[in-house]
């Protein structure tokens, strides 16, 4: 029986080796390993062998079964690989077929609004100014007339890196930096657009958002210049019929200070849900630069005056495009982002 097993081994191996395609391989599997296959038959007839030979024959027969299974598997793989190679050889590349189009990206709505704001103010003679997002307590608060114990700090809590450094809570510190850089030269006319950070998070507030700061300092700047500038901005940004309203307010770094409203862009001023029936929408804070702020930045408040304003860019974009939830700006949903061209 051992001789028979050896014969079977040689035959099966040769047979598998000689196979030319997957069909033949299948046949070889059935012939040797199938239910009625030769090796199976041999194993079944094990009972007729002398009892002392059975374990050796059984062991060898099982080892052969495994070996043949492995050989069939390898053969199958090499037949499949060869077939793939043939397919590739026969394939022709038609260079005249149209390619798949590349997806063209587009600007984020906040980028679009920022570019528009820049264009308006640059057109009025303002320069672009920049400041760091990690700001010192001095520039973010102290120099803006907000000392450590001032209650205005409560509304602007942020991430502190150390006691002296924090993520800036507004773009107003760039006012100080811009003046320090230019003092005592006049005029100063700058805008700064950038990211600011606060401890806020809901449908109309995010812990990171964008602001645009404006500053003009000269020997004869008045509140009328502020009004004229912001009125022009509102009309350029939201349309020629825009009205602007100044309400008295308070900011530590301006005196006097105002909050500025535009006539509601949804209803034109007659009152609707968006403007809570008031006909007005608040868009920014502004005022005349506080003499102390001019002084710490290198300007003599007796010889120069200035105006400043600060607005939230998300708010402008939400009004302009009728967006109800600020979080949409930052959730990277292409269905939202694809709508702005
Ligand atoms: N920095 C203020 C804020 O974030 C906004 C602001 C108000 C800026 C009045 C100004 C200004 O320049 O004059 O709430």
Short description:
The protein is of the alpha+beta class and 341 residues long.
| CATH fourth-tier homologous superfamily of the largest domain | Bira Bifunctional Protein, Domain 2
The end-to-end span amounts to 83 Å
Order of helices and strands: HHHHHEEHEHEEHEEEHEHH
- Molecules bound to protein: 3,4-dihydroxyphenylalanine
> Would you identify the regions where 5 or more consecutive residues have pLDDT less than 50?
none
SSE-based structural type: alpha+beta
Mean pLDDT: 92
- CATH level 3 topology of the largest domain: BirA Bifunctional Protein, domain 2
Helical content stands at 40-55%
Number of domains: 2
Reported for the largest beta sheet, the result is: 7 strands, mixed
Just name the CATH architecture of the largest domain.
2-Layer Sandwich
- Give the overall silhouette: elongated
CATH top level of the largest domain is Alpha Beta
Plain-language structure description:
With 341 residues, the chain is α+β, with helices and mostly antiparallel strands. The chain has two domains: 2-90; 109-337, 2-Layer Sandwich (BirA Bifunctional Protein, domain 2), CATH 3.30.930.10. The protein has eleven helices and nine strands. It has helices spanning 2-18, 22-33, 38-44, 54-90, 109-123, 137-140, 173-182, 223-238, 291-296, 313-321, 334-337, and strands at residues 127-128, 134-136, 165-167, 188-197, 208-218, 244-251, 254-263, 280-289, 305-312. A seven-stranded mixed β-sheet has the order 1-4-5-9-8-7-6, with helices on both faces. The chain has a two-stranded antiparallel ribbon with strand order 2-3. Helix 1 runs parallel beside helix 4, helix 2 runs antiparallel to helix 4 and helix 5 (109-123) crosses helix 10 (313-321). The N and C termini lie far apart (83 Å). The model has no long low-confidence stretch (mean pLDDT 92). The structure holds 3,4-dihydroxyphenylalanine (DAH).
